[in-house]
Design a protein that fits this description.
Blueprint (H helix, E strand, L loop, with lengths): L9 H30 L3 H27 L6 H8 L3 H19 L3
Helix pairs in contact: 1-2, 1-4, 2-3, 3-4
Length: 108
């Protein structure tokens, strides 16, 4: 007889989602001056902010994959982060999972 699959704790899911949103917001805030620096051909600014933005992307991807590994959401979340190149996908995934958590918590 297969073991019953346990659902992850909604509180833990919300905490991880909060971290995804925080990292995505910071990454988005860094993206604006990075794009401005790239358009203005400011190599000093882009050489500093580029790697920081790249680290933010990798952190978003790690957090999305961690949630997938812990069965908090499906593989669609990290794939969405990759396809949208980071913050937008992380924020879209955050919204979708939050909506699902709120629907599950609502009285029937």
């Amino acid at each position: 007889m297969p073991a019953a699959e346990t659902r992850p704790d909604p509180g833990a899911t919300r905490r991880l989602l909060r971290w995804v949103a925080i990292v995505a917001a910071i990454d988005t805030a860094l993206l604006v001056p990075l794009v401005i620096g790239a358009v203005a051909d400011n190599h000093g600014l882009t050489s500093v902010l580029g790697p920081i933005h790249g680290f933010g992307f990798l952190l978003e991807l790690f957090l999305a994959a961690l949630g997938t590994r812990n069965r908090m959401w499906g593989w669609w979340f990290p794939v969405l982060v990759i396809v949208t190149l980071g913050p937008l996908g992380a924020l879209i995934g955050h919204r979708k999972v939050t909506r699902e958590l709120n629907a599950a918590a609502a009285p029937a």
